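Dear colleagues,

As part of the handover before I leave the project, I'm documenting each prediction I ran so the next person doesn't have to rerun anything. This entry is a single chain, and its sequence is reproduced below.
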Amino acid sequence: MRLLSLHHLVAIEISAAELVKVAAAVGADRVCLFVQSMPGASDFPLVRPEDVPEVGRVMQATGVTACNLEYFGLASDVDVENFRPALEIGARLGATRATALAFDADMARLADHFSQFCELTPEYGIDASVEFMPLTPLASFAQAVTLVRAAGHAGRTIALDMIHMVRTGGLPSDLTASGPGLIGYVQLCDGPKVATADYREEAVHNRMPPGEGEWPLAQFLKQIPPDVPLSVEVPMNRLRDRGVSAVERARIAIDAARRLIEAVDGS
């Protein structure tokens, strides 16, 4: 049975400790947390060192664990050593993955920095992936494949967010063609065939639960091995603004993801 993580973007108005409680209430196995600040994401709720004891206690009480850590920005002048405090927070909470974002158009330098990041994270028991998105220089799945291969070594993988895959024209067959072992982490969401005019608004504030939109999620999921972590990343601020609680929004998203998984896996 595939495990599901609840992404903090589902309810960025609540704390990490509250997110863990919400995850437990809706039957999510894990949570994905923000631990590293990033330009343009000042409203994202970071887990800070002083928050770790409370978050850890709630995890222990509920059985919910940490999955992915976000976001580690790889700019042209990045020093990956500066990521150690955030990785330490993640390690203390038992996180298993960390996602990098690319903010450097020089692919050779970006590959070098990603390689350094991938060498750093195992010191904390964490695997690394890189996420592509149209809002960054690493704008497509094909570019991400090239970057990961340039970085070398097994275990350096892509974080596949379905909104970015679909909105850049990616197809389920692209996953087959890329070969096994390249996808390290998947973020599930859905949406209409036609994108909204404001890409960031759709990506950060308003997506659709898995299986309730028009994307070929089932076909994509069939290409994802069952041991690859799945995160439900479905911000629905349209519902929040109508008074729908964080736990009810999370329940809508998690239940939809489970229905999709059951339809694909037959269990």
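The CA atoms of residues 74 and 102 lie 5 Å apart. Strands lie at 4-7, 30-34, 65-75, 97-103, 127-131, 157-161, 183-188, 230-232.

All the best with the project,
I.
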